[in-house]
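Extended Data, record P-loop containing nucleoside triphosphate hydrolases superfamily protein
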Amino acid sequence: MASSSSSRKPEIKGRGLIDEVFSWSVRDVLNVNLYKDKPNKLTILLVKQIHQQVKRIPQTFSSATDYTKSFVEPLLEETHAELLSNVKNISRASTRGITGGSTAKYFEFPKDLFYNLLLEKKSGSENKKGFYEPEVGDLIALTNRIPTCVDDLSRPNASAYVIALVQRVNDEVPHKIQVICSKPYAFPDKESKRGGEFILFAMKIIDKVLNGDSKGSKRCSLCSAEDAQNSASPNLQEAISTLNLNPSQKTAIWSCIAARECQHQETVNLIWGPPGTGKTKMISALLFALWKMKCRTLTCTPTNNAVVEVAARVCGLVKSSLEYDTYGFGDIVLFGNGERMKIGGFQELNQVFLENRVSVLADCLSPTFGWRRKAESMIRILKYPKDEYSSVGNGKTIDSKEKVPKNTKSKDKKLSFSEFVTERFNVLEEKLTTMVRNLYTHMPTSFVTLQLAKKMMKVISLIRSIGVSITGNDGMRNELLQVLEEVLCQTVSFPKSTDDWEIGNFCLKTASLIFCTASSSIRLHNIVTKVELLVVDEAAQLRECESFIPLQLAGLRGVVLIGDEKQLPATVKSEICKKLEFGRSLFERLVSLKHTTHLLNIQYRMHPTISSFPNKEFYGGKIIDGPNVIKGSYKKQFLEGDMFGSYSFIHLTQGKVEFDDTGSGKNMVEVAVIIELLARLGKECVAKNRKISVGCIAPYKAQVDAIQSKLQSVYGRRECKLSVNVRTVDGFQGCEEDVIIISTVTGIGKKSIGFLSKPQRANVALTRARHCLWIVGNGDVLRHSSPIWKRLVKHAKNAHCFHVGNNDKTLDQAITNTLVVFDDGFLKSMINLKKPESCKEVHSLLMKLSGGLRVPQTGDVSHDSILFNMYAVNCSGFKLVWSVVMMEEGVESVQVLKVWDIFEGSLKQSQLIKRVNKFYRGCSEETRSRCKEKLQDRDLEVPKSWSKVDNISKGIASMSLTKEAGSSSSHFRDGKSGESDRPRP
């Protein structure tokens, strides 16, 4: 959309907050405690008192002013924390080149520093990561070079960067934007040697905080759901009855309709939608009903993905109910950033997306080339063909504004009368029919009545019917003339403006259903119109201060909040704000105040064995399993064995949790087990030609990355129909898969489970699976780290779903391969072992060693080397020689057990000692020193890790974990040798 042509100075929402952010220096941004103890000098939103520290947000408020003031300082603290987080990761920020700029006409020193910027253009095929796409409300930095670290922002030249806020984006020409800057910005001359100019994305700032009253009202005693249903039109009753809703969904919908019809009080309806209970289906049905009622409704969500999903579902229902082509879509509008919403994958949304609609209507309403011009031209060619023929010089030319089809005769050649009329008609036919259809599709039904829409459709039908017989079909031609003139007469009230912004506002003013994110709803405050009902999906994920924006719209009489406070809340970066409950949603606060809620109580996602624990733990057993999930056919056994049923806890005793510099952890034993499970599922897909979707959920990004890095082995066969989705818990809310594998990232040395200890995250992780839920981790650690997980482990044991991972042969092999590396000499010796009992004894000893247990060495070990160990294998007479070596992966070096050989007799012992000592003499002193170091966790010895050492010897470096198996990376099980990739422990 082009920017408005209005000369009015743009209003800056939340100016107090913006000015404060503009005042921060780099030192201020990096100061974690900037607002913890510092007196607040702000006067944002009429708050004039000086507070010594931010205060906890209360549950109830005495007035609207008190309500607003409670969020001011936490909002500022959270804004600072979010900016701090993004600045620390500045090397990964999105960037874009600036090709030009100038001061805007509203520019006024010293505060209103408005600039128009021209950005580097994005090619049609370009979709590179890190390419900045501007959106109104973005906080950006203008800089003459792309910073690689925080220090680059505080270098001596003070003009290195300028903070700015995006005020306007030209949607029609998206590389043109308007910003307001924190200080004057000097654009370089063309001859300047300053280098390139860049935009650096910093964060999305909260646009506006308005005062309001959050108190939820109780239901009106005079307006019930039953009364609303009984008094509704038969058409509405039939529409809802055909949507296959369960009783709880119907009750929720009719309660909302009753609230809308109520004239006695404003109401707030809370709809509680636990996982799998058809929340999105219920919302879509409600909005579909409101569309039929022509109730002006705004639907908001916290995120682009959520609003697109709801809008697509509603459009699907509307499309299936339309009786007259696409007539009716004009009452629905979705607006926001098209690229971030990724609406390209939803065909129906192209009919309702505001940017597309504005472009279409601007063409149709153009006084020069629009639909009226085309209609008038069609009337002239039908009514006065000879005059038209004469006016263009006996057919020598055709209106230069109309494009002649390529297959027609040359415009320079003289046309006969018949040829001219036919050619002229054909040119107009395509344009006019397209524009007429666009009008009844995109114009609201308040402007295009059903009667008018039918006439428009008749125009299209008649034009197509006349076709090439234009000169010989008088009856049909006269009918077309009559209908066209009637339509022209009835459309004189259509908007005359061709300004994109004004057309967009017209669409928003007249729509019945409006969809956008909560933050984007700020645009509606600048439009003189009223919204009757506000519907907020994922309301428990929307911070209450963000809900201020849509809650303050004029004319609002009812609010519907749909969510589940038992699932993930809004993200809050500031630890201070977390303690102050800044992330609390309006939904959660009203629930805590015992506000009446409508529970959607039938779940259709999880097999009953999966839903059993979360239903009892988080929802008090109030959820009923739907008829589809209790059918025998819903139970799937994708892999053989009790360990791989619908619900399973796979207990692992080996493995250590390693943390990186950001505090993100991973357990490579769990990774190995999960990769083995995925590989077996992949084989199942190929063998039985079936599709299986799998979700792998982990609490840490490091674990997600570790799993993803090893997925290639799962997709070795092209015909595999296994789809794998690996995400953190936060990224999985709203998703579901056939099989969910939860990696708890627990193991030796881990005393807690971090994020998963929070009930809301645990709930999300445990409720994503349809047919199978497999939990991988250390049950003992989980039992002692969180009450929820203690109860879950107990529940799994009581249900006979608790299994030891080592009891499965292939999982046991994967675990062993992760913890131990074998020398070729050992593998050859194992092949030569004749007694199966001896093989079992060796394997038992190896499992103890890999698990961290250590036993006394045999007494005849030479003391000339303390780098290796010699253990007796029970009473078999054999001796096992092993040592600690350093292995590399990524940026770390890790201690790993290497098993050298198993033997009998002193001669082989002497030879082996010499070979091991020779190996270590080839290592650096630092490497040998690290091989000797020990890390104890109670009675267990666990591996240590270091940042990668540059001087590791060639002998050790050749044992890279990412290489194919060779002499130093072969593996064995039950006396048989084998080869595999060597994952890190």
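Summary. The longest strand covers residues 892-903.
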